[in-house]
Design goal:
Structural class: alpha/beta
Radius of gyration: 16 Å
Mean pLDDT: 82
Strand content: 5-15%
Shape: globular
Number of helices: 7
Low-confidence stretches: 37-46
Strand order of the largest sheet: 2-1-3-4
Number of strands: 4
Amino acid sequence: IIASYGRSGSTMLFNNIAKSLLPGKIFNKNLSFFIKSGIWSSFDKHKCSSKILYKTHFNYTFLKKNYLIDDHTKIIYIISKPTDTIYSTYTKASTSDNDWFNRHLANANIPQNHSINDLLNRDILNIEKRIFDFNNYKNILTIKYEDLWESENKISNFLNRRIFLEKYIKRDASLSDNKI
């Protein structure tokens, strides 16, 4: 599972690992899609299959409580500077269709009763809680987005498979480069 609190590089990491494991085949196994669509109810006894790569913004407690993972499930948890994540989310929400922000919150199992401006006033993405929540899990590799390109071997060793990352990609939305 590739997990993150969103806007932290999880889609990019998911795509890179998927390309490395299955050259020529790209698919997005977003857990929230499976659960909301009803496909999940008949899917692998409600647990993530070890043969499928998933991407999620669900926190560890949700995954464990709903029997989506067990102690053998490998999780790569990618995080980024919280200010960059908030800025990226704010920028994306401000420049996307009106429903993007609510879909983003729903994909992270966060109530959709927030406005975009709430991002600037409090931790509605529950970033702090999510970081500490994943500390309870044993079979996890936590990678900072900023260190991702120096972590290719570490990820390969964790997965017991060689993976290749694309050339470094500078974040489009980084608070260190911009001001709100």
